[in-house]
Amino acid sequence: MTDARYRTRFGTTPRVFIVIHAEDAGQAERNAAIAHAAGADGVFVINHAISGEALRPIAAHLRTRWPDWFIGANCLDRAPAQGFELLGGGLDALWSDNAAIDERCTDQPAAAAILAAQRQHAPAALHFGGVAFKYQRQPDDLAAACAAAVPYVDVVTTSGPGTGLAADVARIRAMRAALGAAPLAIASGITPENVGDYLPYTDAFLVATGVSISFTELDAARVQRLVQRVRAG
Hints:
Elements: H1 4-10, E1 15-21, H2 25-38, E2 42-46, H3 52-65, E3 70-74, H4 80-87, E4 93-96, H5 109-121, E5 126-130, H6 142-149, E6 155-158, H7 169-179, E7 184-186, E8 204-207, H8 220-232
């Protein structure tokens, strides 16, 4: 795959996707409304405390509430291929922590299997695929891992070393150079205060902790500040 589908929808302007640690439909809708009112480009719902089966109706509820807004999910208790099968049909994107790229190998059969599931179950959905992501194997050769991922994921997605921890700017700069025009997303440690450090290198920000008052509730003022900072460039 190439960057074409993401670029067709979002171009080259950096985008903000707010991450909601989903508990139930009401809680997800309440927080999604905060993100929507602030002008975020969309949301991802993620299931830290509930099952993928429970996440599916929550995502469907948000789709009904906002039929034209970008809605994605990260199904933590399923492998990416299973996530596409379970959730992908009604979503704009599936985000996975591990895109199964192994830069030490010439072929990428595990990544190819995820791509096949995406094409079968959710051909219209994007894959935000984790590369050099927190709590996963870290590549021996970061540039090679980025290059290997481009044919298999729509948006290479990385993070800092842990939840709520910012990524090293030099590492993000190196990934940007390795990816060329292909999209790059960051999914941890972004705040209204530090996002400017990443704007020159990053296409999408997936943000929860940096704009929240608790693990499950967003801070409306901080969400708005983040969106405004990214829009200002």
